[in-house]
Amino acid sequence: MTPTSSSVTVAEIRAAADVLSTVIAPTPMEFNRGLSERVGAEVFLKCENLQRAGSFKIRGAYTRMSKLTDAEKARGVVAASAGNHAQGVALAGQMLGIEVKVYMPVRAPMPKVQATKAYGATIEQVGATLDESLVHARAWAEETGAVLIHPFDHDDIVRGQGTCGLEILEQCPDVRTVVVGLGGGGLLAGIALVMRELKPDVRIVGVQAEQAAAYPGSLAAGHPVAATAMSTMADGIAVGLPGDVTFPIVRDLVDSVETVSEEGISRALLFLLERAKLVVEPAGASAAGWLLENAGTEIEGPVVCVLSGGNIDPLLMMRIIRHGMVAAGRYLQFAVRVPDTPGSLAAILADCAGLDANILEIEHIRTGPQISVDEVEIALRLETRGPEHCERVLNAMRGKGYTIVHELGQD
After folding, report:
1. CA-to-CA distance for 245 and 228, rounded, in angstroms?
2. Which end of the chain is more exposed for a tag (fewer CB within 10 A), N or C?
3. How many C-beta neighbours within 10 Å does residue 339 have?
4. How far apart are CA 26 and CA 28, in angstroms?
């Protein structure tokens, strides 16, 4: 790896850890058997979803804000965030006695908005993305003199987030691979700086949502390039442009930046809920999603997978669980056409029951452009035991003479 030109040192990250020692406790590191079996190596989960305010962001926010002068504190601070940084800044402001204003996207998850308000911050929701909210935050800072607390692009933010890397080495000293979700890059940059100095042979992987991935194009170009599209459930890592501070660190010290699909993220959320008993938000599950999508490839263990946050809207959780169940082959959706005669519906329900497929939803459709006057279309959503059971159900239904007119895809 090429040495980075970053001014952040591990000694400074250790100093940040000393400051944070009175504010936060180290988050748990948990071995996960299910993920280890799939990856083919020991996998440990670094549970930043259990951190104060629900994510790693308090590390950087408090580190940055604790260094402000009395005059700067008196002017207050401003931030832009989709939610986790907002909560970190608001909590730090509460502890340090600093007035906080936060600009959040209009579609920021409501629980994150409410939690930020509960910490005492003033909220203004503007723009569709973090980058648009950041424009307003910069303008407010220029207008009022408030100090902008950037979500990732500041040395003190990187120093604070790097304390997570120190904990990783303390809790798993034999680590060989570290996988971290990547948005703006503050967490990944901080961890990479620690690893490269203290354990340089560790493989470091950054993971972006493939539908909001600014880093691959930026790395190819050699400088930050704005993403052309941002459409992901992982709002916490939906950052359209890498930062000037974080980009060179990621470029110089991180082994690879990979992407994970939306299906991979939803599968990971469901897996972590079922197998690890952990509530994780989409951005926080991106690293685990990449591991699941790449199970069977050569990933050297022990692996530390950072779960960066757990602030998820319950309504989104319900949709994601449903999406994840479909993606994992646990739900089967299809429609058949049968004669519109008494007993047809009862027969198909009995046949599904005989195949040990539990019916979750059913729709009885009598009219449509492709439906004859003497037939009816029945759409079913079934709960199954996995992909093999899905295929067995479909084959059995065809064998019983049913014509499957729609095999429905994921939600």
Report:
1. 21
2. N
3. 11
4. 7
